[in-house]
Design a protein that fits this description.
Among the domains are: 26-113, Immunoglobulin-like; 302-446, HUPs (Rossmann fold), CATH 3.40.50.620. The chain starts with a helix and ends with a helix. It has 476 residues and is α/β, with parallel strands linked by helices. The radius of gyration is 31 Å and the shape is elongated. The protein has helices at 2-23, 115-143, 148-176, 183-191, 193-223, 231-247, 257-293, 317-335, 357-367, 384-397, 413-422, 439-452, 455-475; strands at residues 29-35, 42-46, 53-59, 64-71, 78-85, 88-99, 103-106, 302-306, 342-346, 404-409, 427-432. The strands form 3 sheets. A 4-stranded antiparallel β-sheet has the order 2-5-6-7, with no helix packed on it. Strands 9-8-10-11 form a 4-stranded parallel β-sheet. A 3-stranded antiparallel β-sheet has the order 1-4-3, with no helix packed on it. Strand 10, helix 11 and strand 11 form a beta-alpha-beta unit. Helix 2 (115-143) runs antiparallel to helix 3 (148-176) and helix 6 runs antiparallel to helix 7.
Length: 476
């Protein structure tokens, strides 16, 4: 990942340098769109002479054209040019402003000297960024699937891909219809990228929220009205309600220019905040689905079975599903000629349990024909992370140094893999089936747990994105 970040930094600097050089080439020019008269002839009059400037009229299509300015403004901060048709018609005053970084700038369109090079550089950078994220996501899947980087690459890769397509469309328009192109439009696309992404993904969010609500209704009817069974409904309401301020609140907004600008700035900040968690949700959904489809590693001769609450030493259906999935994995290994499997039931004793979870799980395995010598009990852990750490210590004491497999419910696979990675285990997971109405709500709990597990990292990244788009909104 660090190597890819260095590559991305090098690409960024290369595109920035290329844009700077292009802007300062002798052939660099500034195009300003105008309406062409019927006879195609235009009279241009400069209010003041400036020997550093030259211009020519370039005809376009559909009654459009543009004036191409070359050179630079030597002595004046502003330069006014009036254009009108030779046979009369409406006159237009063009005001050019001198900028130490951008050269000549048209006050009405935002176009500046060599702006095409900058547009190409930005589009090239976004294409490179999207490519890096896609390659990084592929690398994560192959070598480091169970990490937060996989979620980041998936979620923000989708955002960069969508933004890249929008910019490439505007870049194509710049070449195909230069007489209707303006940098003001590009600034708008850049500033409103979070809002446009919200608009593009709105159908997905609406369908996802409605399906989650439906599944939660079934869950509440069958599992009881408890707060943790309502998380799916709460998240759905927040997502649907959150779309309104970002997409619809500012429609038709009027008022003083300064007030409107500040409203647009805070709207951009809000959309960025929403975008961050939406990208995390998209990445988590993608990784959760891929974890279920992840191929089994039958060469792994050890399977960790993650515990959950037991009742008076009795294994409930949820935990039984994990144990059955582990035994199914062991049977497949034996059928494929990989030999016997070592089973490690994991879980200590909770405050409402009569014995450690691992002991109840061991008894279940013995009742289903697993020999005692193939069972290694880990009965001191209190959570998933300790499951992984303590099981790793037991394996190290036995001299086992290979990869391991862990068995849990399908909705719990990815987060368990993250904890396994952090515990220093090279692991892959197998998941037991979960009732359809239980899965979405359980996934919400997993998603929230993933967010809460990295508060500092999320805070730093979120502040960076908020500051970035806030600055863009105020500058452009």
């Amino acid at each position: 990942m660090r190597r890819r970040l260095w590559v991305l930094l090098a690409i960024t600097l290369a595109f920035a340098l290329a844009a700077f050089l292009y802007m300062h080439l002798p052939s660099a020019h500034l195009d300003i769109p105008i309406d062409m008269p019927g006879d195609g002839r235009i009279l241009i009059q400069a209010s003041e002479e400036d020997g550093g400037l030259s211009w020519e009229v370039m005809p376009g299509r559909n009654g459009q054209g543009f004036i191409r300015f070359r050179g630079d403004m030597r002595e004046r901060e502003t330069f006014r040019v009036q254009s009108e048709g030779m046979d009369g018609g409406e006159a237009r005053t063009i005001v050019l402003e001198k900028n130490p970084f951008l050269g000549m700038v048209d006050a009405s369109t935002g176009n500046f000297t060599g702006f095409r090079g900058v547009v190409l550089a930005v589009s090239g950078f976004l294409t490179a960024l999207t490519t890096v994220l896609i390659l990084a996501f592929r690398d994560q899947i192959r070598h480091r699937f169970y990490t937060y980087h996989t979620i980041y690459c998936a979620g923000f890769g989708v955002f960069c891909f969508a933004t890249c397509l929008l910019f490439l469309g505007q870049t194509l328009k710049m070449f195909l219809s230069p007489e209707t192109f303006s940098m003001v439009q590009m600034y708008s696309y850049l500033i409103s990228a979070p809002q446009r992404f919200m608009l593009i993904t709105m159908p997905f969010l609406v369908i996802f929220s409605l399906l989650m609500m439906i599944s939660n209704v079934f869950l509440l009817r069958r599992e009881g009205k408890r707060f943790h069974n309502m998380l799916g409904i709460l998240l759905s309401v927040l997502m649907l309600a959150g779309l309104y301020p970002g997409i619809f609140l500012g429609d038709g907004l009027e008022g003083l220019e300064g007030d409107v600008r500040w409203f647009e700035t805070w709207e951009c900040v809000y959309c960025t905040f929403y975008l961050y968690f939406e990208c995390m949700l998209l990445g988590a959904v993608a990784c959760g689905i891929m974890a279920v489809k992840y191929p089994e590693r039958l060469e792994n001769s050890c399977v960790l079975i993650l515990g959950s609450q037991t009742f008076s030493g009795r294994v409930p259906p949820l935990l039984a599903g994990r144990l059955d999935r582990a035994m199914e994995f062991g049977r497949r290994r034996r059928e494929e000629g990989y030999g016997e499997t070592l089973y490690i039931p994991c879980g200590g004793q909770g405050s409402h349990e009569t014995e450690p979870e691992a002991e109840s799980m061991k008894r279940y395995l013995l009742e289903h024909g697993i020999p005692d010598e193939q069972i290694l009990v880990e009965n001191t852990s209190r959570n998933t992370y300790e499951n992984m750490v303590n099981a790793g210590k037991l394996l190290k004491e036995r001299g086992y140094e290979g990869d391991v497999t862990f068995a849990t419910n399908n909705y719990h696979l990815f987060r368990s893999g993250v904890w396994a990675w952090r515990a220093g285990l090279r692991a892959s997971g197998v998941g037991s089936r979960t009732r359809w109405y239980f899965w979405p709500n359980a996934f919400v709990r997993e998603f929230l747990s993933l967010l809460l597990a990295e508060p500092v990292r999320h805070t730093v990244l979120l502040l960076f994105f908020l500051g970035y788009f806030f600055t863009l909104s105020r500058m452009l």
